[in-house]
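In practice, a research group might receive sequence data for several interacting partners and want a quick structural hypothesis before committing to experiments. The following worked case mirrors that situation: the sequences arrive first, and a predicted assembly follows.
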Amino acid sequence: MSEKLVYKDLKEQSYIIKNTKSFEPKHIFECGQCFRWNKDENGDYIGVIKDGVLKVKKQGNDIVITGVLLDNENIEKVCNRYFDLNNDYDKIKLQLSKIDDNLKNSINYGYGIRILKQDLWETIISFIISANNNIPRIKGIIERLSKIYGKTIIWNNKEYYTFPSKEELAKATIQDLRELGLGFRDKRVYETTKIILDNKTLIEELEIEESTDVVRENLLQFPGVGPKVADCIMLFSLKKFDVFPIDVWVRRVMNDLYIKEDDEEKVNKKQIENLAKERYKELAGLAQQYLFYWRREA
DNA sequence: ACCCAGGGTCGTC
DNA sequence: GACGACCCTGGG
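A structural hypothesis for the assembly, expressed as tokens:
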């Protein structure tokens, strides 16, 4: 066991976002796009992101964010990027609401959703772990990975753990991963980590690639990344809003609302894909997220 | 105790 | 292109 890096006495920063109608912490953090945000005893959300630890508090119409960041990063800059604050969600919601009443209802329900821009590497591994798995267990696995292989940040006398870098995660053997509870995903995470580690510029190249199809093609080469996981990665870390990840819940809601097949298992994935592309166009990913959250929670 | 499902993918036919 | 197998955990 090697010694672990511990960060403490990092300078606390804060940032207030005024008058946001389209920023509801519960919607953002519980719509299934992220696994490292948790409600604290006051009902605020605390999350570990690549750059540090943040606490998001709702105060009337304002959002107050405090946190400690690594590498002397600026909280305003980090939040603008991570929370997609330069994007006008009021406008997007208006546009989507006009498409049909189903979408309008789902947006009324999850009005405060924003699509996060999460770290690409972390999102790849996290969604490989998500395969045929449930959210509490996914969160548990990622937390344990971070605790053992990531860096420790101490803030307000509590310990937080950053998601391991590719070099840090590469220290884990397949057996280590199995013992952490990854199940059959152990080998997939191990192999994908190796590929990314051996291909120094791959992640950076994918970050700047504009074509959704080119990025998808590349992601599909990783063990454990199929069409659904690839779409999630692109939506939740690369802001590709034109994708439409189809899982059991999305299949369910699309069948209930549009297709109305008696046996939802029989619904063709291609059929849903075409329907989404046709109806939601370049905002399919956002539509998917409102519908997913609505169907799961309501 | 038993069964089922969960933000699917992979190998095989 | 269909079909079963796959770790593990929480809930009925």
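Before designing any experiment, note the following. Strands of chain A lie at 6-7, 12-17, 37-39, 45-49, 52-59, 62-69, 152-155, 158-161. Residues 32-33, 127-128, 130-138, 184-185, 188, 223-229, 232, 245-250, 292, 296 of chain A lie near DNA strand B (CB under 10 Å from a C1').
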